[in-house]
Design a protein that fits this description.
The structure holds two protein chains of two kinds. Chain A contains five helices and five strands, in the order βαβαβαβαβα. By secondary structure, chain A is an alpha/beta fold. Chain A is globular, with a radius of gyration of 13 Å. Chain B is built from twelve helices and ten strands. The longest helix of chain B is centred in the N-terminal third of the chain and has 17 residues. Chain B is globular, with a radius of gyration of 21 Å. In chain B, helix 2 crosses helix 3 and helix 5 packs across helix 6. Chain B has two domains: 66 residues, Chemotaxis receptor methyltransferase CheR, N-terminal domain (Chemotaxis Receptor Methyltransferase Cher, domain 1); 189 residues, 3-Layer(aba) Sandwich (Rossmann fold). Chain B is of the alpha/beta class. Chain B has a seven-stranded mixed sheet with strand order 6-2-1-7-8-10-9, with helices on one face. In chain B, strands 3-5-4 form a three-stranded antiparallel sheet. Classes of the chains: A alpha/beta, B alpha/beta. The complex binds S-adenosylmethionine. S-adenosylmethionine binds next to loops of chain B.
Chain lengths: 123, 300
């Protein structure tokens, strides 16, 4: 079973995302901010990360930059999942190593189509 | 609208049209039924839906179903057809059309344009291979409102996320307020025209690729067969035909053969077409001909 790390400071969003990802047959871990997420990755690298941008302690972009510096930190597919919906944020995220980008609000179809895009579910 | 009204609406749509509407799609109901509610002079969508819910009036129900299903489209819908286009069709065309350097593509139920524009974006990715080529993409649809949107090239945040890789978004769109505007180098690759598939195709010319997706489902078998048959006359040699994910050629007549390893992709078989034509018009000629050979049928 593929591992998915859900990083969001909102427990509601984590719950929604968890439900969608579980239906898609992923095993889920959760983190509330970038720091927790980094720790989670260092103990076990997930296959895919759904990543919020604005979070306390360490935000999504900082987390992603740190992650990509780690040995094997290039393994997880990272999908940003954020209310930041302008071209600037999107290009910054991609430059930092994001594989895909979802602008909130999202639904199951959008998540699944992005998972297909990064090769995490079959097309 | 109440949850129970929404749920029975979802059930009804599924039964009537096969549309699968998940629980989080209330926004879609609002946006698609808004114009209908206005036209029928309901106060709002919710009022109209509760009226339908309590009366189940057929005429109202039909308008709801039509408005909910009719123009659905999204960028890179189902992904595979566009992978096939990139991996099979395009390399093939680059070889077979090396002399004329002219490719014609038809999006036969173009709706709001995403299909035609997805192809345009893929072609744009390969423009280095197409220097000096003339590529025409023609999108036709019955519905002028859908075409108006197609021509504008302006899409919502939802629409640009469904199925489209973010790299395409970054490369080909500009943000305009809450909407996303497709760049003119892409929109200028496509021509949209209002056209009914029931009418004669001759004015459209011949094509090398035909995308005819998620429209045949609205027709009965006879009409489907008729459309596919008439499309053959618009096929250049070896023309590729692409149907929707849930559509097949099983049980329909025509001379299209499935392309190996490319799910949902068919190639027009001109030799078989010529042969079948001969056999049906003059079957005394060549009595040695075995029927059933040479790609007579394409059922799979
Ligand atoms: C579901 S959309 C398909 C859009 C696109 N091909 C796709 O697969 O995403 C179906 C379209 O078929 C169009 N349509 C229905 N009947 C038609 C006809 N007789 N002639 C031309 N277009 C028709 C509708 O207007 C609608 O835009």
């Amino acid at each position: 079973m593929k591992q998915c790390l859900i990083v969001d400071d909102s427990s509601v969003i984590r719950k929604v995302a968890r439900r969608i990802m579980e239906e898609a047959n992923f095993e889920i871990t959760e983190a509330e901010d970038g720091q927790q997420a980094l720790e989670a990755c260092r103990s076990q690298m997930p296959d895919v990360i759904l990543l919020d941008w604005n979070m306390p302690v360490m935000d999504g972009l900082e987390f992603l930059r740190e992650l990509r510096k780690d040995p094997c930190g290039d393994i997880p597919k990272v999908i940003f999942c954020t209310t930041e919906n302008d071209m600037d944020h999107i290009t910054q995220a991609i430059a930092a190593g994001a594989n895909e980008y979802i602008m909130k609000p999202f639904d199951k179809e959008i998540i699944i189509s992005k998972l297909k895009e990064v090769g995490m579910v079959e097309a | 609208m109440t949850p129970s009204e929404f749920n029975s609406l979802r059930d009804m749509l599924n039964k009537e049209s096969g549309l699968v509407l998940s629980e989080d799609k209330q926004y879609l109901v609002e946006s698609r039924l808004g114009p209908v509610a206005k036209k029928l002079e309901y106060k709002d969508v919710a009022t109209m839906v509760s009226e339908w819910h309590s009366s189940k009036k057929a005429s109202l129900q039909n308008q709801i179903v039509e408005a909910m299903t009719i123009n659905e489209s999204f960028f890179f819908r189902d992904k595979t057809p566009f992978d096939n286009f990139k991996d099979y069709t395009l390399p093939n065309l680059i070889k077979s059309k090396a002399t004329s350097k002219h490719i014609r593509i038809w999006s036969a139920a173009a709706s709001t344009g995403q299909e035609a524009y997805s192809l345009a974006m893929v072609l744009n990715e390969h423009k280095h291979l197409l220097q000096g080529w003339r590529v025409e993409i023609i999108g036709t649809d019955l519905c002028s409102e859908a075409l108006a949107k197609a021509k504008s090239g302006l899409y919502s945040q939802f629409e640009v996320q469904r199925g489209m890789p973010v790299t395409y978004l970054v490369k080909n769109f500009k943000q305009v307020g809450t909407m996303w505007q497709l760049d003119s180098n892409i929109t200028s690759m496509v021509q949209f025209r209002q056209f009914n598939l029931m009418n004669s195709f001759t004015g459209l010319g011949k094509f090398d690729v035909i995308f005819c997706r998620n429209v045949l489902i609205y027709f009965n078998r006879e009409t489907k067969s008729d459309i596919l048959k008439r499309m053959e006359a618009q096929c250049n040699n070896g023309c590729h035909l692409v149907l929707g994910a849930s559509e097949t050629l099983v049980g329909l007549n025509g001379n299209y053969t499935p392309v190996a390893n490319a799910r949902g992709l068919y190639e027009h078989n001109r030799e078989a077409a010529v042969k079948n034509e001969k056999q049906s018009t003059n079957f005394k000629e060549s009595p040695t001909h075995k029927t059933g050979t040479g790609g007579l049928s394409f059922t799979r």
